[in-house]
Amino acid sequence: MSAGLKGIRVAVIGGDDRELYLIAELQKLGAYIVGVGFEKAAVPGVHIASLKEAVTQVDVLIFPMYGTDERGVIKAKYTDSQIMLNKEILQAIPAHVPLFIGWARPALKSAAEMMGIRIVETANMNETAILNSIPSAEGAIQMAMENTVITIHNSESFVLGLGRCGWTIARMLQGIGARVTGVARKGTDLARATEMGFRAVHFSDLEDEIGRAEIIFNTVPSLILDRVMLERVARDAVIIDLASIPGGVDYEYAQMLGIKALLAPGLPGIVAPKTAGKILAHVYPQLILRHLTTVKPSMES
C-alpha cells in the first residue's frame, strides 16, 4: 500500500491544519499533490495552483470536511485569497474526476447532479464519523469544562442523539464520573444506553426531563432545542451543540433567556488537527482507489 497512490494527481483545496497532515500522508503513498490555498504554508513537494487550474490538472478533488458556505466560499487558513466553488469551476471539472467533500450543501449537490459531477460526501461515512467522534467528544467536553462553574464529575449531563458521536461523548462523560442521560428515539439505542449504565430518555419525554440537565450536548442536526424546549432548560445550564451548521438550538431565544449555548462544528480540526488529519489520511486513499476505476484515461494522459 506504500505506493498505492503512485502517479495519482490529487488536488487538496483549502481547509486548515488537518489538510497539512493529510497532504504529508498522501505524499507518502506516492500521490502528486496540487494545493489550492496553501501559499502561506510550508508544504514541500506541493504544486500550488488556483482552483480553476487545479480542476483541469488532477484525477481527484478533495475539499474540506466543512465544505463551503452558502455562497460557495471555501475556508482556507493558509491563504489571503478567496477560494470559491462556483458554476464556472463546476463546469470545468471533467466528468471522470470525483469531488470529495465532508458536507455538500443542497445547491452544490443539485448543480453537480445536473453537470454529471460525482460528489462523494465523507463526513457521514461510518469510518470517518466514528473516528472523528473521538476528537469531537474530547473537544466538546473541553468546551464544557471551560464554560461551566461545576465539574463534569457528578454533573447531570444530557446527550441528545445516540449516534456515532453521541455514544462516544456519553462514554467519555461516564468515564469522568458524570451522571449521563442518553436521549434517543430508537428502542435499541435506549436499551443499549440502559445496559451501559446511562439514564435512558425517549425524545418524546425530553420536555419533561430536560430541566434536570446542567450540561447538554446536542448531536442532532435539526432544531431540537426550540423555544418550547428552552423554556424548560435551567438558566444556568450550558449547551454544547455539535450539530452541523446552523445547529440544533434556537440561539436567539437561548440568549434572550440567558442560557449559554455554544455552536461547535469542526471540532476535530480545532482541538486535534494532527489526529484528524491522520484519520482523513486513513480513509481517503481507500476512497480514491475505489472511485478511480473510471479515471484511468486521465491518469495516463
Helix content, binned percent: 40-55%
How would you name the CATH homologous superfamily of the largest domain?
NAD(P)-binding Rossmann-like Domain
Name of the CATH architecture of the largest domain:
3-Layer(aba) Sandwich
The tally of domains stands at 2
SSE order: EHEEHEEEHEHEHEHEHEHEHEHEHHH
CATH topology of the largest domain: Rossmann fold
Radius of gyration: 21 Å
Q: DSSP helix count?
A: 13
Strand numbers in spatial order across the main sheet: 3-2-1-4-7-8
Major beta sheet, specifics?
6 strands, parallel
What is the end-to-end distance? 23 Å
Low-confidence stretches: 297-301
Mean pLDDT: 93
Strand residues, percent: 15-25%
From the spread of the alpha carbons, the general shape counts as elongated
CATH class of the largest domain: Alpha Beta
Q: Tally the beta strands.
A: 14
Counting helices, strands and paired strands, the structural category is alpha/beta
Walk me through what this model shows:
The protein is an alpha/beta fold. The chain folds into two domains: 9-121 and 272-300, Rossmann fold; 127-265, 3-Layer(aba) Sandwich (Rossmann fold). Helix content is 41%, strand content 17%. The longest helix is centred in the middle third of the chain and has 22 residues, at 126-147. It is elongated. Residues 297-301 have low confidence and may be disordered.
